[in-house]
Structures are given as C-alpha cells and as structure tokens.
Amino acid sequence: MQENFTPDQGQKMQLVSLGDITEHKRVEEALQKRENCLRKQSKTLVQLAKSKTLQQGDLSAALREITEAAAQTVEVDRVSVWLYNSDHSKVECVDLYDTITKRHSCGMSLLKANFPAYFQALEEQRSIAAHDACNDDRTQELSEPYLSAFGIASVLNAPIWLGGRLVGVVCHEHIGRIRQWTLEEENFAGSIADFVTLAIEASERKAAQEALQQSEAEFRAIFDRSSVGIGLVDMKARIVDINPALCQILGYSREELCSKRFTDYIFKQEGDLELYKQLISGTCDRLEMERRFLHKDGKFVWALVSISLISSQNGEPEYFLAMIEDITKRKQTELELCESKEAAEAGSRAKSEFLATMSHELRTPLNAIMGLSQLLQQEMVGSLNDKQKEYVNCIYSSGEHLLALINDILDLSKVEAGKEELFLSKLLVQELCDYVISTVRDRAEEKKLQLIAEIDEQADFCIGDERRVKQMLLNLLTNAIKFTPAGKVCLEVKKLPQGITFTVSDTGIGIDPSQFKFLFEPFKQLDSRLNRQYEGTGLGLALTRKLAHLHGGDVTVESVLGKGSKFQLFLPNQPPLQEDSSQFCEEIFCLDEEQSTQQEITVQTRSFNINKVSNSTKYYSSYGNSSQLKRNKDDSSSTCSRRTQLTPHHRATSITKNILLVQDEEKTAALLRDCLQAIGYHVEQISNSNDFWERLQNQQPDLVLLDLELAGDMSGWDLLATVRQNPDLQDLLVVTITSNPTAANSDHPVDTTPDGLRDRALQIGANACLCKPIGIVQIESILMQYFG
Question: How many secondary structure helices (H) and strands (E) does the chain include?
Fold first, then answer.
C-alpha cells in the first residue's frame, strides 16, 4: 500500500507496506482445487446419472463406463469393481480399468478366508481410505499377494450394497508415492459404489424382463402349438383367450369364441356347479371330467376337461384355465369295444347254449344205447352167446367214451365261462394219492409199467375241491401212462411254504420244447399222427390247467423228447375265496367197481317235508380223462343245517310196486319201462302232463318218475311244483330226471349248473334226482332205498 507523507522540512515521502500472503495464496489454491475437484466430481456423477448405458441393463458396459469416469475424476492409476461369488466365499474382479494402458481386464479373485481383516472392514465401514495401504491394519493383508505386486501405495475402497447385503467393492488404486485421500474423494467413491449398485439392479431387472419375455414367448408357443385345447376363461365364464387347437376342436375361429360364454359350448351335468364352487374355495386343486362339447356343425365332441384356477397378485381367483383334450376317437373305440364285448358275450352264450343243446341231444340217444346195452349185458331179456356179448360190451364202452368226451367239453366250457364253483375243503394227501393210484393201477399193469408214489412226510393235507383235485391228478396220471410205452410213472408230492406240489413224471415219448405253447390248448394234440396211435380229444391238459388256475395254482411242464416228461400241479395254501353258496349235507354211498356205471350221477333223497333234505348219493366213474369212481363215506366238504333220517312211506314188500313214468322221449321211456319191468315193477307211462292227474288218481302209483324236460302245456318243473302244493300228495315219492342246464325254463330262474338244477328240484319237492344217461344200477339203488 502506498501513502503520501510530508515531513517537517516540507519534503514529501511515499510509504509502502508489505505483508506475507503465501499461506493465504495456498489456502486460496487449495480451495480452488477443492472447488474444481467437487465440480469435476459433480459433473461426473451427473453424467453417470444421465447415462443410458446404466439404464439399459448391460452390466459389463455400465461398469466400463463407471470405472473410466471414476479413474479420470479421482485421477488414480487403476479403478476396479469386485463382486462376491454365489456362495460369498470370495470376490472376483469383473472389471479393472488401467489409465496407463487404457485397457479393461477382469478375472482376478480374492478368497475371503485369506483376508479376514480386510473383508470385515468392508462390512463395517462406509469406505476404506488407506493412505499407506501396506501398513494400514485394514489392508496390510493384501500387501504381499496384491499391493506390492502392482506397486500400489494407496487405496480407496467403497463397499457395494444391494438390498441391505454386501455384494462387492469398488477399488481406487494409486501407484507410486503415498497419497492422502480427501473426504470429498471418500464421498465420491461411495457415490461410485452406489452407481455400481444401480447398474447391477438395472442388469437384474433386464434379466428378469428378458426371462419374463422368454417365459411369455415359450408359454405363447406352447399355447399356440399345443395339440391340447387351452382356454382362458374369466370368473364370469367369458372366454378371454383360446388356442388354435381348441378352435379346431369346436370348429370356430378365435374371433368367434372370444368374449363368448364358455358354458354355451359344454354340456353340463348335475353337480357341476358344486364342483366349480369347490375349486374356487380351494377345496380341490383342479377338476378333471369327461364332458361333451357342441361343435359348430352341430355334432358332439367328447373331451377330457381339466380346469384349474389362476389367482391374481392379491390371491383372489381371476381366471379359469381349461385344458381340453379331444377323446372322441377313444370314446368311439370304447363303444366298439363294448359292442365287441357284447358280441363276444353273445357268442359265449350261444356257445354255451349250443353245448347244452348238444349235451341234451347226445345224452338222450346215449341213454338208450348205454341203458339197453346194460339190459343185454345182464341178460334180462335172454341169454347171449360170446360174440353177442363182445358186441354189446363194445357198444357200451363206445358209449362210455362218447360220454367222457361230452363231460370234458361241458367241464371246459363251464370253467371258461367262469361258472365252475369249487367246494373247498381240507383233503388228506395220502387218501388222494391212494385213490388215484388205485384207479390207474390196472392200466399201468396192462402196459407192464412200474407205478410209484412218493409222498413227503410233511405233506399231510391240501386245500381244494376233492372232485376236481382227483380229476386233475387222474388226467395227469392217465396221460403219463398213455404216452409211456415202457418204464415207470411216478407221483411225487412235496410240501412247500406257499402250498403243495403234485409231480407226475414218466419215462415216455417226451415232448419237443417248441410244442409247449400248444400243450394246454383245447382239442390240440401235438402230433396229428398220435391221434391214430393214442386215443383222446386233447381236452385233458387244457381242463387241468384251467382247474388249477381256478384253485389259484398252476400246471407246469418239463420234458425231453424221447426221454420222458414231468408235469407239476401246484395248489396254494390259500386258494382264491369263493362266493358263499348253500351246500346240502351229503353222505357218499359207494358201489363196487363191478357195479360202476362209468358215469357221474347225483341222487339226493328228501323226506316228505319238502323243506328238509336228508341223504345224498354221488356216483363218479372213469372214462379216460373224466371223473373216476368216487368213494367217500362222509363228504367233509359238504355241510347242511337241515338233516333228517329218511323214513319211506312205502316199505318194500312182496307186493309189486306201481311206478308212473312221465317221459316224452320214446327211447328213454322204452329203456326205463323195460328195465323197471325186468326187475319186477309195474310201470305205466304217459308222454305229457295232460293225462297226469287222471292216471295219478286211477293208478295211485307208489312212485312217480318225472322228466323235468317234459314238453307240453305244463313243464316238468311246473308239474312238480303243483304236486307239492297239493296237501294230499305230500307223501308221494317223486324222482326227477334231467340231462342238461336248459331243463330250467324261464319261469324258474335258477342256477343252471347240474348241481344247481338238482338243488332246485329238491327245493321244489323232488325226493331224488337222476341225470341222463341213466344206468340200471342207479335206478336199482334208488328203488332199494324206498322199497327195500
């Protein structure tokens, strides 16, 4: 500062004052520098805030822009961004900008476990401003592996937070001399970290949008290309969207269906509204049902409909999603299958009716053939010479063979139709084996075969139908003897945990394994040349396996051609449960083998009270593969709660008894009349029901022999019922005759099995029942029970 000054002598002088403003200038420069720095930082932050790169969601591009801007603003050599990996065990460098080379790089990583102090500081502090990084407690762990390697003296690190979670760090690195970081620079580093957070959020948002778009595109592709019809329906049942498949199913365009009511095209059923209410209330997740839809051309379309609920963000039901699959062809196939099933059932019924009819038609002449030949055999009408006896015996044996064939066919048909009923009981294995061995022993001895039975000591009993088990064993043994020219046949019984096995082995001709698949087919003999050498129909094994299956077991085979065969019958400990059926208590009366009529016949006697059944007699015979003579004095498989001792009304005397024969079949009538007259009875025969009551009153017979298949105005069933309804005829002895299941007419719907017909007849009022063909021994046996 200058100032004029006049001294006393009058001379003027100029004074200048000087002051040291160095500090002031330094302060001004520092302020200016700080202001410029803040202005520069502010400008950078504004530019980043306006950057479209950060908003586009490209994280790599955004980080490159951020690191470059930060390096230029803070004037450091390196700026890098490090992010935690998925398990938060390390940080990885995703972008590093070097101002010297002006290049970006990435790929380095730092394990969190190796630098605990540094990572703890990141989590606890706003920023790490390490002026002397190699000696700072927070960063000195990084000195040797990282700082010294790159010549880094000072670092300014700011943690990156996202959603309250530490996700990484932004590093500002100064190389060379130690640098003092200012507060403004620390704040700027924090702002840079915030921009990194924004970049990450934008990237995640973009990824979510892209995923959503991809999902929507995929859904639309599925929606449009699905072969299943898909419809989106609002809560008012209006169609919001529909795919091409559903348009094709209904025959409408998308424009025609949108905004229309979905319920206008589906046929509703009673209860559908309740189902929809359950779906809306959350009681069920989806509805699945088969419904008809109305096509545009008026035809019906069957569809499998699956309906689920789509809820809004607040959880309220917003749409129904209907998945509709066209099942019209399937329904048509089901209808065709039902029709085929009905046709098959009709065919099966026709087959059964045919077999029943054939049984009747064959048994009727057989009755005459076998009955009359028996009369001749017993020389009731005169003596025969040796040649005549040979012829008669041939006639009778041929009838036996034909009867065996009929029985096997009917048995097989009954099993295939599922009408065979088993009467299961506990059977003694030793008695079973003794019976079947004794039955086939004569045949084995005729061929000079060794017949052996080996029974496991633990195999004391088995569960099965006694008649059918014997039939199966006899079929297997008979076949083994038939096809074994020399050697032996063995029956071996073993007890298993699950059941019991009966194994029949032989040293016969054997079977080619390639023929096993035909072995159990009906009417099948493996080599047609065998038909001439070995008689048989090929039904035995087929029937045996089916009966085994009915017991819950099976029949298996092992064989070597030319060396022999082994057939094994397995019966389980617990056969399948059978439906309960009422069984009459039976006493099995046996006949001597010389008296056997080689047929199965059931004779049941009743007391004069029709509600009480007393005695029953079963006869079985052996014809090749059919049933053998059954001898049981007490049938344990039969039970009866109603049992009385028969007291015949007419006891046998020397007086000739009168029998009224009601039979419309001429040959059968002749046989029965001649047989009865030959053994000393007086017989009157009528062929219809018209003369029955007159003859009954005039003749007053001691016994009526009634054919249930009687033709005319009144069937034999009706005639029997009428007799028992008359109080004066309660003591009249009535023995009925039947031959096949068709004997039961439509007015009496009963069990059509032979046992069912027998039981029906006894319930109506018959004293006993005979089944055609009828043998002389059976007739005599019945008459002896009543007349002595």
Answer: 21, 28
Q: Is the pLDDT of residue 566 over 90?
A: yes
Tokens 């073993």 map to which residue?
494
* Block residue for tokens 């476990």: 113
Q: How far apart are CA 353 and CA 413, in angstroms?
A: 11
Superfamily for the 38-208 domain? GAF domain (3.30.450.40)
**CA distances, 273 to each of 233, 237, 287, 547 (Å):** 16, 12, 12, 52
CA 253 to chain centre: 41
Q: Which contacts (CB < 8 Å, 24+ apart) does range 442-450 have?
A: 443/478, 443/481, 444/481, 444/489, 447/481, 447/484, 447/485, 447/486, 448/486, 449/481, 449/484, 449/486, 449/487, 449/488, 449/489, 450/487, 450/488, 450/489
Domain ranges, ordered by start, for the chain: 38-208, 226-418, 421-572, 658-742+749-787
Q: Give the neighbor-by-neighbor strand order of the sheet with 499-506.
A: 450-455, 488-495, 499-506, 564-572, 554-560
Instruction: For 634-700, list the strands marked E by DSSP.
Output: 658-662, 682-686
Q: How far apart are CA 434 and CA 479, in angstroms?
A: 18
Q: Which residues are registered as beta bridge partners of 317?
A: 311
Closest-CA residue to 318 (of 310, 306, 327): 310
pLDDT digits (tens, 9 = 90+) for 440-479: 998 899 999 999 999 998 999 999 988 889 989 998 999 8
Dihedral angle of Cα 54, 60, 63, 69, to the nearest 10 degrees: -90
How far apart (Å, rounded) are the C-alpha atoms in residues 61 and 95? 10
Asked if the domains 38-208 and 658-742+749-787 are classified in one and the same CATH topology, the answer is no
Kindly report the average pLDDT of the chain as a whole number. 79
The dihedral built from the CA positions of residue 127, 132, 136 and 142, taken in this order, carries a sign that is positive
In the chain, what percentage of residues exceed pLDDT 90?
28
* Model confidence, pTM: 0.41
Which pair of tokens denotes residue 388? 């005549």
In angstroms, rounded to a whole number, what is the distance separating the alpha carbons of residues 515 and 513?
Answer: 5
Looking at CATH, the fold of the domain delimited by 421-572 is given as: Heat Shock Protein 90 (3.30.565)
Of the candidates 75, 201, 189, the one whose C-alpha atom is nearest the C-alpha of residue 125 is 189
Q: What number does CATH give the domain 226-418? A: 3.30.450.20
A 10 A CB-CB count for 740 gives: 24
Looking at domain 658-742+749-787, what is its CATH homologous superfamily? Response regulator (3.40.50.2300)
Give the residue, 518 or 250, on which the prediction is more confident: 250
What are the tokens at 538? 């090929």
